[in-house]
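User: Hi! Is it possible to get a structure for several chains at once, not just one? Here's what I have:
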Amino acid sequence: MADKKSRILLWQPMMANAFYALVPIVIASVYFFGWRSLALLVIVNIAGFLTEYAFCRVYRQPVSSAVFVTNFLFALSLPPTLPLWMAAVGVIFGLTFGKMVFGGFGRNVFNPALVGRAFIYVAFPNHTNAFWSDPFRGFPAGFAHFAGDAITGATPMTILKQGGEIPLVDLVAGFTGGSLGETCGILILLGGLYILWKKSADYRIVISGFVGFLLLQWIVWATGTQGALAPVPALFSGSFLFGLFFFITEPVSASQTNIGKWIYGFLFGALVVIIRTFSVWREGTMFAVLLANVFAPIMDLAIREIQAKRKAASR
Amino acid sequence: MKTFNMGGVHPPEMKEISAGAAIERFAIPKIVVLPLSQHTGAPCDPIVKKGDLVKTGQLIADSPKPISAPIHSSITGKVTAIEHRNHPLGPRVKSIVIEGDGTDEWIEGVNPSLFDQDAPVDVDFSRAADFRRKIRDAGIVGLGGAAFPTHFKLSPPPDKKIDTLIVNGAECEPYLTADYRVMLERPRSILMGTRIIMEILGIKNAFIAIENNKPDAIELLNKLCGEFSATDAPIQIAVCKTKYPEGGEKQLINAVTGREVPSGKLPMEVGCVVQNVGTAAAIYEAIALNKPLVERVVTVTGSAIGKPGNLMVRIGTVCRDILEYCEYQGAEGNAVIMGGPMMGKAVKYLDVPVVKGTSGILCVAAKDVAILDHRPCLHCGRCVEVCPMGLNPTELALYTENREYGDLLRMGLMDCMECGSCAYACPARRRLVQWIRVGKMEVKR
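Assistant: Yes, the chains can be modeled jointly so their relative placement is included. Here is the combined structure:
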């Protein structure tokens, strides 16, 4: 049968898988941080959809359902205490300048969610960097609250970097401060494996990302570099896992060739470690993804040229 | 288990629809349409004229060009027209139309009562010098689909040393079961044909490559292999993994021998010759029974077919006659495809004839036909992953779409064999192979 045609929305099956994988993470974010996470998500979705709709109307094209994946990912990368209007500003900026100006879905050079995230990160540093909230524990935890108390500067990255200790179980299960979707390592792994299984994410990127991250993290840790974490806690703290499964694998901005994907994933993993360890920022995932995005097209180009040369030589 | 080294997809096989049906002889048609171009290479010139009476198996068209194959009348009757008619593979082609008189009178030296048996007479190998000419005169072409003239494939230039023959029984196209049935019902003919080819090329090494989804064919041929092999030139069975396009010529060579045919070159470059199993059987019949290529096995299948099967059909039989017999439920929106679902071509008119390269007629009911909207490319690289030739299909398609033909050749456009794996794998349903075909046409211009 011919696909259902809608003037407003274009359904993207491949993106739908990413969406299913995110649902448990959304529920977890409510559990940890209260109903405010859902409020953020709703605001971001409305603002994001309207932004894309405004552009698509001009060209009389339907809105791609991929926008909701971008919205979800953007919302889940926000700190729980962020003012709602800032979230809206972020997603509007990200979609406009990260996606629509490049020609819409399928043409973006950067991950639009992270373009928005980077924008509010530098535009509102206080709110995006300094205020976090401690997660709820037990039951009903966040389901009974709207928001947790805002505290200052206490993500696991900060604590661990300053020499503090957090039990590994808390890191893996998600009882730590941080952005809405990045804390619960277990659910991210499950969701990630789901999209790998469904082939929405490419295994080459994920594997090489893991390898790049663990290898470099191990090197900086073993050499005793100041501020370097042990590989395993580093894996589960901060947003590396979330970025690895959901941001760097986003196909449009990723490398396209098989060899390119291996390099691309490795580059991402390594960049995360470098930024985390040597820069002034505590977290490196966001900038690592954007930097890797920069190199994806040129890697594809180089690989194509090399293959064409080799082919010409074999003739 | 053997398989090729790059790419490939696993479409649903759908062979169970027709796999169980034994080859059945389709009634002699009242009318046949024989296009003068049924093969790769130069078209033939007619040597009969309107009003001539012809017998079954009589030569009616030929060409002096080396890459060509003569055409024989497939029924007994009168030539009623020589004119342009619809062709299953594209534009209209000059064709000879013959109206039958109801009898089936063969040319001299042919005994049609032997045709329904498997290898009824022995081959006289002392006359091997004649084999190549006999194959040409019988009009034999590759029956796998490409219809390349067989005698030319068996005449490598003297500087190319051929050491391996691969008889292709992979039949990787979904739905099709013609080769499978030939392997089950004419195994001795196939093995005899294989020996004839080995004799012509003077080689000691032959493989019959079969995908592992046909275990009974593998077992049967394995059992008969020894009986038909010469003592110093064994015929072996190569079991291949079921993966599309395992039966592609270059893929099969890679799977069986590990060799890689260089870009833009023919299999003889790496010392291989590939022939379809049906072709091998036809070669046997041409040499032992003097039978020209006037009929072939065609799989008729699909969800719009009431009586699917494998039919022995005279070349030139009009598609509509066959579909009527197989209880085709015609309806608006159905797709009738000559060949398999991956590489076959949908036809608009049902008056197209079966040609030498027609391995199947696939009729898909409208409810199963998916005309999907294509969407923006996600750059996911799925097409790159599955391309058996190691190309970047989305880039080739995109360059064609934007009329940037300059770089296409350098990117390996001509290496594409149009297997369709890319379009099959694309999650955005982009018409990749279709655009690449357009690109090829534009570049040739």
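Chain B has a mean pLDDT of 92. Chain B has three domains: 15-22+112-289, 26-100, 382-444.

User: Great, thank you!
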